[in-house]
Write a structure and sequence with these properties.
CRAL-TRIO_dom_sf; 24 strands; CRAL-TRIO_dom; Phosphatidylinositol Transfer Protein Sec14p; SEC14-like protein 1; Alpha-D-Glucose-1,6-Bisphosphate, Chain A, domain 4; golgi apparatus; six-stranded antiparallel sheet; Helicase, Ruva Protein, domain 3; innate immunity; flat
Amino acid sequence: AYERRFPTCPLIPMFVASDTVSEYKSEDEAIHVIERRCKLDIDAPRLLKKIAGVDYVYFVQKNSLNRRERTLHIEAYNETFSNRVIINEHCSYTVHPDNEDWTCFEQSASLDIKSFFGFESTVEKIAMKQYTSNIKKGKEIIEYYLKQLEEEGITFVPRWTPPVLCKSESSTSHTRRPVSPAINIPESATKESLNNKEILNTSSSPSEPTAGTPDDKLDADYIKRYLGDLTPMQESCLIRLRQWLQETHKGKIPKDEHILRFLRARDFNIDKAREILCQSLTWRKQHQVDYILDTWNPPQVLQDYYAGGWHHHDKDGRPLYVLRLGQMDTKGLVRALGEEALLRYVLSINEEGLRRCEENTKVFGRPISSWTCLVDLEGLNMRHLWRPGVKALLRIIEVVEANYPETLGRLLILRAPRVFPVLWTLVSPFIDDNTRKKFLIYAGNDYQGPGGLLDYIDKEIIPDFLGGECMCEVPEGGLVPKSLYRTAEELENEDIKLWTETIYQSASVFKGAPHEVLIQIVDASSVITWDFDVCKGDIVFNIFHSKRAPQPPKKDSLGAHSITSPGGNNVQLIDKVWQLGRDYSMVESPLICKEGESVQGSHVTRWPGFYILQWKFHNMPACATTNLPRVDDVLASLQVSSHKCKVMYYTEVIGSEDFRGSMTSLESSHSGFSQLSAATTSSSQSHSSSMISR
């Protein structure tokens, strides 16, 4: 039955084709080993496939059938991206040692992601989702082919016997490799588990009872008032998990409503719910999340520029949170506060949501355990796809998904622009399938028609900016002034570390003392990418190449090669005796960057060797007709105290073996904006892409 899924299987849509690579059969036909190369169409975001440069991935699968020992071993590993991602899977079908009519099935897999264009977490999510769905379908597929065999009249396959028949059955036919006993999986509330009459796994070991007993009941009024409809099995799961926490957990025991959220998130599988709940309780204790509303005051920047807030409730009594994401300067907030402060603020919003759910439960007299979120995307543009900002968003989603399951009752996304599908492609793999089903997306003014806002929110509380009559006190967002941006060092000193560090470094640039960064390239055609903000003064950005390595800068802060200042470091790598054109060469035309500009770009390297990124003080040119400086030049020079400039930068190299036209490098966009929909001008050269918006 298993062999019938080759060369392709209609029940596995992603399994496109397979080719036999090698095949071996022993003379006595007891051993049959076949190796295949399988072509898969992975269910991954189209954008991720574009970045990776592949439409299909290839796996090598080796099946070893041993008719003598009655075992089938299946080994598989990935051939595509094997230098970046290592996937190994092993499955085995064996005969149960205590009952020859039972077949044991065991499956294990490992995933090791070394690097994947900055999307490591996304790939891990996709791989786990794909693996989980395959496990669920595995039994369904084998049953399908067993039924197909029965319909063809094949209900019995004779056991293998040695070529030379003996009077008694050969002892080898009873010799079996030791196997682990069959595991009885705890029942869950899903239909799958309830209807599963195990064919492959029929262990008789006792399982925990799933229905409630007379001593295992909650008060019916309490359930109706605070928890909602529960089946006897679900009620029993809640009580057993709560009892386990009371017996084993050291610390604050969460309320029944909170425990119930984790059970629902795992379809009332107690073991899975217990695992994620314990991890969450440890996380809450470690970061003092229980006290965040009482002990932490959001910085003024968040209060002024974070365009989100609570706004009454929806028709079901759920608290309503409004987020004007399109009007929010995500990059400015990250630069002014760092990712830790943003995460802490989002956590405080979720904690406030839990508190409001409790209050609304009392007000409406029925259980309310989740809230509704209304997201207005008017104003969303490519600037919101700024890569570090997207990374921060994905990390925040991960933390919230892990620690606040089943808290989102409904998500209404309004006025989605053309750029929204790109953002959705990046974000959706991180969002649980159950959560995704609660999303309602409206483009343009569709939300005003049938099936729109009025189906979920009373007319009296529709916010004014959406055409309603209710004044909404949510901040309007807008641009965070660059004067509020802080350096990496300043963010480093903040005492609010939670789970990440800024990826940006700060540097000072002086007249006659540029700041330089060395990047060694082993393979030609690698891609150097950069992202930097000019925080103060005007600079010239250059890229140089040298076949020999420059001398490392001196560690002495007073030395000629290295200057340390409160505003950032200054490192000079190009020796003063080096001559341009002889010792090193310029590989791109100089790019003049003004104060306040944000620059993103890339360079595809032509040669191996050493590349130097340089930020140099920009000298204002004198007027062509006179030796006297222009008024504008004088005013500009007065703004740069002591001829000092400041930049914050981040660089990354994408290897040539994996680069296929990554959006990160070839479609980079630069954005320091004075308006949310700023006009964009570009400056691009051969083998380089850099864009600036003012």
